[in-house]
Amino acid sequence: MGHRRRARRRLAACAVGATLVVMGGVTAPAEAAGVGEAGAGAAGAGPVAAGEQRDFAYAAHESGVPEPVLLAVAYQESGWEVHQGHNTSGGYGPMSLTDVTPSMLVDGAAGAAGRPDLASPASDPSLHTLPAAAALAGLPAQRVRTDRRSNIRAAAALLASYERDLRGDTPQGPAVWYSAVARYSGSSDRAAATAFADRVFATMKAGAERTTADGQEVRLAPAPALLADTTGLSSLHLERTSDAGTDCPPDLDCRSAPAATTNYQVATRPSDGMTIDYIVIHDTESSYDSAVATFQNPASRVAANYVMRASDGAVTQSVAGKDLAFHAGNYWFNMHSIGIEHEGFAAHGATWYTQVQYENTAALVTYLAAKYHVALDREHIIGHDNVPGPVDASVAGMHWDPGPYWDWNRFMEMVGAPVAEGPHGVGPVGSAVTIAPRFASNDQTVTVCPADDPTGATPACADRSEPSNFLYVRSAPSASAPLATDPYVHADGSPGTDEINDWSATVSAGQQFVVAGRQGEWTAIWYGGQKVWFDNPHGMNTVRARHVRILTTAGAADAPLFGEAYPDASEYPAGLGVDTAPAFTRYTFPAGQKYVATAQPVHRDDFYPANGTTRLTETHIQGAGTVYTIQYNHRLALVNAVDVHCT
């Protein structure tokens, strides 16, 4: 799902916080005792952490929760991110303490407004851990919503209460906290609760470190010998739900909620000849339940194959992998892709794409890529914002999710295909580069308007500077030069803008382009039929691309480009309608320019499902012609193989 583009964008810097390694045991009392409510170290105390790391140390000492447990729970809930407001599941702060109101369940796209049953789901105690935790810690609920330290302290008090309910005390060793951690997940399903606890314990064993969006460096040292004690699980009385009808990795919490039959087409991919070549990452722009309900609404005409919940990474499969889901806004790409929706909002992505979503999506994508032989690169693992419009009229309105805050560096590393292979730098003109800015230090400024943010948290258009996955490209090697334009998004020829939904002058992490020039700290690439420039001091935002195909036009003429790739009319059997994919009228592959294609060309093809009357079986038509997928601008494009050759 996600936004359609509305139509404006800019640039900034970052801060770095202090670090402290937390070892695999509890913080020493003498050390923690030096951390007061104001965060100052006591005279004569040992070294103490700063910032967020210090807050975890203080809360652990105060509550009796082992510090590694507290850090690992927060890492799984939020990646240690600090934010204002609640996430899509009503969770607040780095510990994602919940307080869900009926109004949070109202979503126009799902038609929930005015429904009388909203109070019932909102009354579940697992959706109101914040007021309970605040009371246990003796803190005002509003302070727990908005203050980082208070949020962590309240969550620690709640986690400690869970452990006391189970064992009567708060043991120092992390191993025995497994069941309390499972309860903290908020899930009544055994698979979901234990999957959360398993991830928390895996984090403690492996260790973790990252720089948050506000520059805090937080670290948890590994404890490889840690073994979880699961003996308290039976006391939680968790339910066992069926995963029948799902196709997921065995350790993922999956359920089936079939989409309405109007929102997909029955097929037998890939045995019917329709290869699955792409996996498309989306966000829902709504709650998880609303997205699932939308897919089950026959009138919506939209469904992805999977939906990933933010709070615990639970997955709903709505459309079988063999079938053709209507998710990408481009029928030919739907034919050849699987779509994964993520509960979240693109305008708040860095804060609310949760660690568990990244981990579970990586597991699902790795599983699907192996099953369907999908290439693990950014021309095949793509965002909805990378899918081309099928025809001229649809290009400007294509969706822009998951947006600038989906951390492609982090995600592609999780699937075993890191964006930055090798040292940062840029090769000579004519060579290919991979866009690879470091997410945490790549602050970019965008303008966010109310129409971009269905949460209601943006009452007026405002600039926002945050770590981002993209770079702006300009018409000349200067920060004051106009942004590149796009003939569909800006039909009047005006430059691109810094609006969050304006993808016309952006390149994102993992995309590959051919170097067209170098001047000082600036690098030029061929992009959307233009020579554009981006700031790249010492090659810090790129790595030299490996194992790529670089295409040029086969002759002196420009090559036409397409958004879909159907066979020639003469290749359709008699009695079937003929689909046409006219070439774009404003995009071409200019002679003399070069673009990257990382895979072999594929056949142009089309699909007709069985309809029970005139067609009793499905029909897949494979044409003789083949096409390459190229990284053309922010989006992909298709070019006939006969019109290009490899260099």
Summarize it:
The chain has 14 helices and 30 strands. With 647 residues, it is of the alpha+beta class.
Task: Explain what this protein looks like in three dimensions.
It is a single chain. The protein is of the alpha+beta class and 647 residues long. The protein has four domains: 21-236, Lysozyme (Orthogonal Bundle), CATH 1.10.530; 254-414, Peptidoglycan recognition protein-like (Lysozyme-like), CATH 3.40.80; 432-547, no CATH class; 553-646, no CATH class. Helix content is 21%, strand content 20%. A six-stranded mixed sheet has the order 6-10-9-12-8-13, sandwiched between helices. Strands 21-20-19-14-22 form a five-stranded antiparallel sheet, with no helix packed on it. A hairpin with a 2-residue loop joins strand 20 (522-527) and strand 21. Helix 8 (178-184) crosses helix 9 (190-206) and helix 13 packs across helix 14. The two termini are 38 Å apart. The model is unreliable at 5-48 and 105-121 (pLDDT under 50).
